[in-house]
Specification:
This protein is mainly beta. The chain contains 2 helices and 18 strands. The protein is globular, with a radius of gyration of 23 Å.
């Protein structure tokens, strides 16, 4: 059979297509570039920092919930500011919430171990009160007088909050914050997902509390 140039080109394209399908077998996704936040300033007690993991954009907005104080006084809930970015996580000091996502702690510190979405018991955000271990401290201006403000209720993701361990010292500073460095997987509501690994709790230059550094890889939805 005589082959013309068009037939040869068509057969070559078919061969490349078969090779591409073969390369994608096994369900693994192409690994995106590792990105990082270094010394993200989340130190303000009365603020949440909203993070878009796709673009790296951040926005900071006041906590608008009702606050209760140790002296029995309260601050009523405020009108929340609109967040203009398409955010995935929000951080208040070392507490974290998601934008309708769910989270799995892989218990592994190897980012390269997961090139496809791992199976597991993913946990959604939950509402907590001011007595929870992850209580949201909102006002420390009266600390020297023993009067501290807390969010009466707040939304957090308990698994993501576990990216950093808080340990009492019995002296000053009163707490030491240590990242587990576990790879934590976030499933987003739009089908995208991310691997997040906290590397430092505190400013990497001066050790000041209320800063976080983390690596992450963001996988687009199919």
């Amino acid at each position: 059979m005589k082959l013309n140039l068009k037939n040869v080109m068509a057969m070559a394209c078919m061969g490349l297509s078969v090779m591409a399908c073969s390369d994608n077998d096994g369900g693994k996704e192409e690994t995106p570039a590792t990105k990082k936040f270094t010394d993200l300033n989340v130190s303000a007690y009365d603020q949440w920092t909203y993070v878009n993991l796709r673009t790296g954009e951040t926005e900071t907005h006041p906590d608008a919930s009702e606050w209760i104080y140790t002296d029995g006084t309260t601050r009523p809930a405020q009108t929340p500011e609109e967040v203009s970015i398409d955010w995935h996580i929000a951080v208040h000091r070392y507490e974290v919430k998601t934008n309708g996502g769910s989270v799995l702690d892989t218990k592994s510190t190897d980012m390269a171990a997961f090139n496809s979405l791992p199976e597991g018991d993913y946990k959604a955000d939950e509402v907590i009160d001011s007595e929870d271990e992850y209580q949201i401290t909102t006002d420390m201006s009266g600390m020297m007088q023993g009067n501290v403000g807390y969010a009466k209720s707040a939304t957090i993701n308990r698994v993501l909050c576990g990216w950093i361990v808080k340990t009492e010292t019995g002296s000053m500073p009163p707490y030491v914050y240590t990242p587990t460095k576990n790879v934590i997987v976030l499933k987003c509501k739009d089908g995208s997902w991310a691997k997040i690994q906290c590397t430092t709790a505190g400013n990497t230059t001066n050790g000041k509390s209320g800063y976080v550094s983390f690596n992450y890889q963001f996988y687009e939805s199919k």
